[in-house]
Design goal:
The complex is a heterotrimer of chains A (562), B (302) and C (299). Chain A is of the alpha/beta class and 562 residues long. Chain A has 24 helices and 16 strands. The chains are: A alpha/beta (562), B mainly alpha (302), C mainly alpha (299).
């Protein structure tokens, strides 16, 4: 036993010696300049990255280099320290970490507003939100730029505690190069385009918005057209769809919600969050496969009826057709990898980018608008093998407005949902330091000025979650895809799946947008419609009926918040 | 007693032999099933990301050490140290932190359970012993939800947060199955062992330290090893409570969690795992013979 | 008489001295940290009103949900199945340990391989196994039969059996370590005299080995039972929060819901936990009592 302990001791000391070779940790932070006021900023370093913030911080330092922020001292100017991190500044981690970090301003994602408020660790920002931005040559306030839905949710007793940050959507991403190359555009006569043709040579159909000359021209307008296109994609030897198999439930589940939201439109969708209002399309049953409808007033007590809203049925029927493929022609509309647990979202992005140069190009990807930024290194490695034309700047991708379920819906605006809970928060560690609070407010106002938001979009390709416009000249800096995202940002109807309703705020896990799409069919529980349909050949109707919830079950779950 | 008859004995022996070889076959199968994925993992760590995308199971073509090379280069965690300065922590320091974390936590966790089990097993006459035993079982049965913020809060309030000794003390609890293992081990040791010592006037403390602890040294070391391995591989707890001391496991997690696809490819991930694994594998292979089975020194011989 | 009393007092002081620090630690880092979580069973939380006492209302709701929900029925079934597999694992671990203890061919190698999964981190094992079940096995099946199948963990029909297999496959380590250790501590004299009597290996196992390792065995059975409704069956490691509803166990459901949920959603989960604890505890202690009372004895 002694010998053994000695040996263990030797091994551990050898390892220790090895460790001490590296002895100290290299300091990498910027040295503090004692002649300047210090501002510490944390940034969640996810898909959006941190480059834009470094740039903004430099501009801020430059603009205020001669201003004194701490009266009574001889400090002049401000030194901004930017700290990117993937762990500390995210969602719940941030709540847990806020009181032990130095950072005063944090750009974060998945920040559950009510949880942040309940923690008491963030600082009120009302003064910054309601102050006219005259400093930056504007007359309005940040509040004026906050969309109404957001305002209703964020404002508590007239006070604000966060500022909306970034805006992202999810849906179908498509490879525009492939559309051009294989002629997947739908022409105004209903035929597919000739490979390589331009809209000038062959006029394209109006797309789902029913209007000519918009970003969706030539794209399928209805489910029928969409699946006809899928057949055509298969015929040309390509694969219509890919999505991540590893996160299949989250990604396809979110996609179902997108279909649902687009079908319903903002007005009919909003009761899902507010639990107030009236909807006219609650399914009471099916007669010969056709749903029968009723109009219902929605309150917290009758919220269960929304589980039977028509849009959910159509979303499911889209998924059903997608999973079914075309048995007659033996076409499958998705790659087998997408049903596998080892197919990560980055692997799917990589295939989507690189398959264009391989035997079976993938035409569409189910993803969020951040995907192109996230796939940056996939583009870089594609350039290595395929040359400069494969770069992110040169490739063309688009985000496809969802096709409409029925002919009569064509022309209704594309409705997308934002839900990334992405905010700017101020750390309560600033409490009592009025000079620093004022400086932090100023920085928040600075990054919410129109000029800075334009620069943000040019740097990241994503819209900020506030209202602002960009000129054609400013937009020219964007990639083809980023431009499409901007077009959707301005052209589509955006709903914010938040509300101040108690029942919704207190039950976001089960009621929140994008979560489980659960159903019970023949006694078996399901939570991923596309899997149920692929594996057990469950029909949309079966799934829809199994997804409905009874009044008593609803009451049991949520009556505390009625 | 002899076997009743020779024939019956041979029948028995045959079935015993069949059974023996059946188990042998099962174990061979098990070993093979274990080594194939591990071998595959090792091979994969020598593949480039593109090679892996198109060639999941074949041999690497070509063999590349790029993953390892770039790991030593890139394998670093940026964090704030105790003074709040931004620092970059590299492989050697991560190894040191791993050792401090795993050995320290394993020592405190094992010893606390060991001592508590001794007290409750040797003094069953006190009511508290039964209470503690019940507590251990109840806490094993009871799932706790949403206690993380409260735990972090407690660590911060007591000043344990971001300190190595702090996490050691947080791990110094007696809950969990190893308490039961020790309890069983101590209960098994007969009380008369100590009687002679008591008659010689030895104190309770001497009896515990000189007589009982050596007898239970084997389970102690075994549990220490198991705990050590667990803490070595654990990245979640250090990430939350000692972010300023990034361990190897945490390094691997950070490394594979980057949004840069070049570094989050499966070969890279597996390579990270291999780096994390090697020290502990060597340790295990060096000591398994002494730790498993060979008990003449610590067990209940005679 | 007086001396015994004195000794008892001294013992009691010593006993308390040993336990003082562990109990303090327990009071702070278990009771202090978790009390609120357990109390949530009888409370509700809403962002506007904070905490309110609701008595047994949460428990009542959970009971109704358990009856209502197919997912919960499946989860209970799967938890029980997992326990069945853990019993099988214990039986196999016993047999394997005996095999190693008896120094059968390649015993040294098996001792290492059986413990190996416990050395590798769960992250690595899950990754390796996932690639195998998902990519290698379908490839092999396709090569042999020409049929295309989805990965074993992806297809919800094969997912549960695969998870149960994995649970068994990686779970031998600690038990093997404990059993072989306990077996090796069996006095050789006892074994030798029995062998002189011509005892068969089976009988030796039954009458000599098993009784001596019985306390260790009972411990593992108790541990398995205690974990009946906290066992996640590695679902979170494999799927994160997105496992198919037909594969959930109660432990997984509570864990994943708690990680996705927010303050107002904890009471329901806490109540489910407490409710199931009320069921599991008597079973666990009952089993312990029976196993110790009627198990083989060393005498």
């Amino acid at each position: 036993m002694k010998k053994q302990a000695t040996l263990l001791g030797i091994v551990l000391s050898v390892l220790l010696c090895f460790s001490f070779v590296g002895c100290t940790n290299e300091k990498i932070g910027e040295e503090e300049d004692p002649t300047k006021t210090q501002l510490y900023i944390g940034n969640y370093d996810g898909g959006i990255g941190t480059t834009w913030l470094y740039e903004a911080a430099d501009r801020f330092e430059e603009k205020y280099k001669d201003v004194c922020f701490e009266p009574g001292t001889d400090k002049k100017g401000v030194q901004v320290h930017v700290d990117p991190d993937k762990n500390v500044y995210h969602g719940y981690n941030l709540i847990n970490n806020l009181s032990s970090i130095d950072q005063q301003i944090i750009f974060t994602e998945r920040a559950y507003y009510d949880e942040y408020l309940a923690s008491g660790k963030i600082l009120e920002v009302t003064d910054a939100v309601k102050k006219p931005l005259t400093e930056f040559g504007e007359t309005g306030t940040i509040e004026d730029k906050i969309p109404a839905d957001q305002k209703a949710y964020l404002q508590r007793d007239g006070k604000y505690y966060v500022v909306p940050f970034c805006k992202t959507f999810a849906g179908i991403q498509y490879n525009v190069d492939l559309w051009d190359q294989n002629g997947y555009w739908i022409l105004s006569d209903g035929e597919f385009s000739t490979p390589g043709s331009t809209p000038a040579e062959e006029p394209r159909s109006n797309g789902p918005d029913g209007k000519a000359g918009t970003y969706d021209d030539g794209l399928p307008a209805t489910y029928d057209e969409f699946f006809k296109l899928c057949d055509y994609i298969c015929e040309t030897g390509c694969v219509p769809f890919a999505w991540t198999g590893q996160y299949i439930q989250q990604y396809t589940g979110y996609f179902n919600w997108s279909l649902y939201a687009d079908f319903e439109g903002a007005e009919n969708m909003r009761p899902n969050f507010t639990f107030a209002g009236e909807v006219d399309d609650i399914v009471t049953g099916f007669e010969g496969g056709v749903p029968t409808l009723e109009t219902a007033a929605i309150t917290p007590e009758t919220g269960y009826k929304l589980h039977s809203q028509l849009g959910r049925y159509y979303a499911l029927s889209f998924v059903e057709r997608l999973m079914q493929g075309n048995p007659a022609k033996k076409f499958q509309y998705y790659t087998n990898k997408s049903m596998g647990q080892t197919y990560s979202h980055t692997a799917a992005q990589e295939d989507f980018v690189k398959s264009f140069y391989e035997a079976k190009p993938i035409a569409m990807l189910i993803e969020g608008t951040w995907w192109e930024n996230e796939a940056d290194s996939a583009f870089a490695s594609a350039v290595k093998t395929n040359g400069e034309s494969a770069s992110r700047q040169n490739r063309k991708f688009g985000m496809m407005p969802l096709p409409k379920a029925t002919e009569d819906k064509v022309g209704e605006p594309f409705t997308v949902a934002e839900q990334y809970d992405s905010y700017i928060v101020l750390n309560a560690n600033l409490k009592g330091k009025q000079d620093l609070i004022d400086l932090a407010y100023l920085f928040v106002e600075f990054v919410c000025s129109d000029a800075e938001m334009v620069k943000f979009t040019q740097s990241t390709g994503l819209p900020r979650a506030l209202d602002y416009t960009m000129s054609e000249e400013e937009l020219s800096a964007l990639t083809y895809y980023e431009r499409q995202v901007w077009d959707i940002n301005t052209g589509a109807e955006i709903i914010y799946p938040y509300s101040a309703a108690n029942i919704y705020r207190n039950n976001t896990r089960s009621l929140g947008f994008g979560y489980d799409w659960e159903a019970t069919v023949s006694g078996r529980p399901y939570n991923t419609p596309c899997k149920a349909m692929a594996e057990d050949r469950i029909t949309a109707q079966q799934y829809f009926l199994g997804h409905a919830i009874t009044e008593s079950a609803w009451r049991n779950l949520y009556s505390a918040d009625f | 007693m002899k076997h009743p008859s020779a024939t019956k004995g041979s029948v028995k022996n045959t079935s015993a032999t069949v059974f023996k070889w059946l188990i042998f076959g099962l174990l061979i199968l098990y070993t093979v099933s274990l080594f194939i994925p591990i071998g595959w993992g090792l091979l994969t760590s020598f593949k480039s990301a593109d090679d892996f995308r198109l060639n999941v199971f074949g041999f690497p073509k070509p063999f590349t050490f790029e993953n390892y090379a770039s790991a030593f280069d890139r394998f670093a965690v940026v964090t704030h140290d105790l003074a709040g300065d931004l620092v970059r922590v590299r492989l050697p320091m991560m190894t040191l932190y791993s050792i401090l974390y795993a050995a320290g936590c394993a020592f405190f966790a094992t010893t606390t359970a060991f001592v508590t089990a001794y007290a409750t097993a040797k003094f069953p006459q006190f009511k508290l012993s039964k209470v503690i035993y019940t507590i251990v079982v109840v806490t094993m049965v009871l799932p706790i939800v949403g206690n993380l913020p409260a735990e972090i809060n407690m660590a911060q309030t007591l000043g344990f947060y971001k300190h190595m000794w702090g996490i050691w003390l947080m791990k110094a609890n007696f809950l969990g199955m190893y308490f039961l293992v020790f309890h069983a081990a101590f209960s098994k040791l007969p009380a008369d062992f100590a009687e002679a010592a008591y008659l010689d006037g030895a104190s309770e403390f001497t009896v515990m330290l000189r007589i009982y602890f050596p007898l239970a040294l084997y389970p102690y070391l075994t549990v220490f090893l198991l705990n050590f391995i667990n803490f070595w591989n654990d990245y979640q707890v250090p990430l939350v409570y000692i972010p300023n001391y990034p361990t190897l496991a945490q390094g691997v997690f950070t490394f594979s969690n980057t949004s840069d696809t070049l570094y989050s490819s499966v070969p890279m991930k597996i390579m990270g795992c291999v780096i994390c694994l090697l020290p502990i594998l060597v340790l295990f292979l060096a000591f398994h013979k002494r730790l498993i089975g060979n008990l003449s020194m610590g067990g209940l011989k005679e | 008489m007086k001396r015994t009393g004195q000794r008892r007092r001294r013992q009691y002081l010593f006993f308390l001295a040993l336990l003082a620090l562990p109990l303090l630690q327990f009071a702070v880092f278990y009771v202090g940290v978790n009390l609120n979580s357990v109390l949530l069973t009888f409370r509700n939380y809403s962002y506007d009103d904070g905490y309110t006492w609701v008595g047994f209302d949460n428990i009542r709701r959970v009971l109704i949900s358990l009856g209502d929900s197919a997912a919960m029925r499946y989860a209970i079934r799967n938890s029980l199945l997992s326990y069945g597999v853990s019993i099988l694992g214990t039986a196999l671990a016993l047999v394997f340990s005996y095999f190693i203890y008896k120094k059968m061919p390649l015993a040294g190698l098996f001792r290492v391989t059986l413990f190996l999964p416990s050395v590798l981190s769960a992250v690595v094992m899950v990754l390796l196994f996932k690639y195998f079940a998902e990519n290698a096995i379908p490839a092999i099946v396709e090569a042999v039969s020409g049929q295309t199948i989805t990965g074993l963990l992806s297809n919800s029909k094969s997912a549960l059996p695969t998870l149960l297999f994995y649970y068994l496959w990686v779970g031998f380590g600690p038990q093997i370590l404990m059993y072989t250790g306990a077996m090796a501590s069996i006095p050789e004299s006892a074994v030798e005299s029995a062998q002189l009597d011509g005892i068969t290996p089976l009988k030796e196992f039954w009458y000599i080995t098993l009784p001596l390792i019985w306390p260790t065995f009972v411990t593992f059975v108790i541990v398995g039972l205690a974990g009946l409704f906290t066992n996640q069956l590695n679902l979170y490691s494999f799927y994160g929060g997105g496992a198919d509803a037909s594969t959930w166990t109660i432990g997984y459901y509570i864990y994943k819901s708690a990680t996705q949920g927010k303050l107002p959603e904890y009471p329901e989960l806490a109540s489910l936990g407490v409710l199931l604890t009320m069921v599991t505890l008597p079973i666990t202690f009952g089993a312990k009592y029976l196993l110790e009372r009627f198990g083989p004895s060393t005498d």
